[in-house]
Amino acid sequence: MVREVGQALREAGVASPESDARVLAEHVVGTSLVMCEGASAEQVETLLALVEQRSARVPLQHLTGRMWFRGLELVCRPGVFIVRPETEVVAGAALDAMREAETSAPGPLAVDLCTGSGAIAAAVAVEVPAARVVAVEVDDAAVGLARENCERLAPGRVEVVRGDARSARVLAELDGRVDVVVSNPPYVPAGAVEDAETERHDPDLALYGGGGDGLELPRAVVGRASALLRDGGVLVMEHDPGQSAALREAAASAGFRSAVTGQDLAGRDRYLRAVRGVRTRSSDRP
């Protein structure tokens, strides 16, 4: 039956039909297919209903209520951005900066601006046990989900703050004290979403960066990060492949002494890494 479901999804044009069929089947029976000894008539009916929705391009994560990020299982709900695999590379760069941070007790301080579901904040808290993590999000639904995910995955380790990442008042008490700012802000240029599934189901607030080039919010995040970071602190921010040069220039104008572009696993320009202030390290040079 799973093979038949996979074929149905393939015919519907789903990009990963066999994988999706397996995930949906395991979701319905509550175990891996290796351990499954069969399915009830009710489970078959449930699976077919889910396949119909997936064929209509309802995201797999919305159907199962979960998504994965750097080995962490997060709750996923409609109305909150679905975290993407390429963001794992961005989080990895931020984690490297956290581990390299020269800081005194009680541990390095990270701020995740535009946290969405809390995926990056949770990953930082889990993978750097000594870290102090503050996450900022403006959308009420996302704030609630971020708190749920972070509290389940890293109890008591992440403070989720409702606020606009562009505002100078957000976390003003931390200005000049933060070791790493990481962000996956809305950055999509106007009309540039090519995937109908993304356009239909991810909220506009989490997609579009503002202006025709999508750079309004990313530039604002660069400016806010410049104020939050200590000298030698690091900003890691995801962006569209076409925004690399503009954001390196924005970082230079905002007081960052080093700004380089990192690539994702497909070799596309994916994130800005910028170092604040006057401290010099050979690893910060392009």
Automatic annotation (TrEMBL):
Q: Which GO terms describe its biological process?
A: methylation
What range(s) does the Methyltransferase small domain occupy?
110-194
Q: What keywords tag this UniProt record?
A: Methyltransferase, S-adenosyl-L-methionine, Transferase
In this record, what's one Pfam family? MTS
Q: Per the record's keyword annotation, is Methyltransferase included, yes or no?
A: yes
What's the catalysed reaction?
L-glutaminyl-[peptide chain release factor] + S-adenosyl-L-methionine = N(5)-methyl-L-glutaminyl-[peptide chain release factor] + S-adenosyl-L-homocysteine + H(+)
Q: Keyword Transferase on this protein? A: yes
In alphabetical order, the GO MF annotations are: nucleic acid binding; peptide chain release factor N(5)-glutamine methyltransferase activity
Record-annotated Release factor glutamine methyltransferase N-terminal domain positions: 3-65
Q: What is its EC number?
A: 2.1.1.297
- Superkingdom, taxonomy of origin: Bacteria
Q: Write down what this protein is called.
A: peptide chain release factor N(5)-glutamine methyltransferase
Q: Which species is this UniProt entry from?
A: Actinomyces bowdenii
Report the gene name.
Answer: prmC
